[in-house]
Amino acid sequence: QLERYGPELLRLQGILVSLWQHKARLERYQECCIGFLSPVRRLPAEILQTIFLLGSESSQTPNVIPVPGQVCRRWRDVVVGTPELWSRISVGGTRFTFIDHYEDLASLFLERSISQPLSVSM
């Protein structure tokens, strides 16, 4: 019977080594993903909308495109789904030099502002 224990212990030891390696990989992955656990990621969309709206109201000049929507995919979805953020457009003093770009930008703002009145500043 002793002869059977040697190979079985080696097999179990191999499994144990494999499990420890897998655990170490998961711990490294967890460390990489710790940013996803930050409190701002747990804020409901409605709170983010309120924050973005308050930030846009305090701005002296409207942005060409709402800046929070350029941070991450979730914030972009919140910005796109908030018509009030698309109700102010600034023409002039932007990086666009051709009128075609302004037409595209205006149609984007009209589309996303839905039923909100559109304010244009020059």
Automatic annotation (TrEMBL):
<feature type="domain" description="F-box">
    <location>
        <begin position="41"/>
        <end position="90"/>
    </location>
</feature>
<protein>
    <recommendedName>
        <fullName>F-box domain-containing protein</fullName>
    </recommendedName>
</protein>
<dbReference type="Pfam" id="PF12937">
    <property type="entry name" value="F-box-like"/>
</dbReference>
<dbReference type="InterPro" id="IPR001810">
    <property type="entry name" value="F-box_dom"/>
</dbReference>
